[in-house]
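Data deposition worksheet. Section B asks for the primary sequence of the deposited chain exactly as it was used as input, without tags or linkers unless they were present during the calculation. Section C holds the resulting structure in token form. Section D is free text for depositor observations; keep each observation to a single sentence. Incomplete worksheets are returned to the depositor.
Section A, Depositor: J.P.
Section B:
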Amino acid sequence: MTPRTGRAPAKNGGTRRGELLGIAAQLFATRGYSQTTVRDIADEAGILSGSLYHHFASKEDMLREILKEFMDGLLAAFTEIAGKDGTPREQFDALVHTAFATIHERPFAVALYQNESAVVGSLADFEFVGKTSLKIEKLWLGVLQAGRETGDFRDDLETSLVYRFIRDTVWSSVRWYNPRGKLRHDVVAEQYLAMLYGGLLAG
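Section C:
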């Protein structure tokens, strides 16, 4: 059985706190974390700035919670895929489908991670960013390496280089992918895999 889920990690629950984090994620992703103020978030939520502090100690706390919840969920989804039965190619396909599903369902969290992780990763309270990223990388590398050993994937390509190409091309698509566009995430994932496996040459 193909271990394909195509499901993004779960979002924050439908609570007021979760709603505020969703607003913050959108503003951080579209305006930039440094350019977004607590007042901006409060205005968008229709509350006074002081009311925001009933839920969060600071803007930095909001960023940390958004990234922590998102990355923990992503790691859990990828770990589940890598732990299921199936060939390395089936597992890899599932990883790619889940990544594009995440971009579809959680574009602001993905964009925020893409834009801010390199900056905040060096801060003491954001050490989890680098650690979780390495765990995710290890999972993908494990699937790619297993594919080399079973003959599913070519063994003349450097696995770490292959991973970096795939990682950057998949996640950077958040900049142009339109959740309401003609092609949904599952179709985009299939097109990506078709190009990856077959290339552009006909015949």
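Section D:
The chain has a mean pLDDT of 91.
The CA atoms of residues 100 and 115 lie 18 Å apart.
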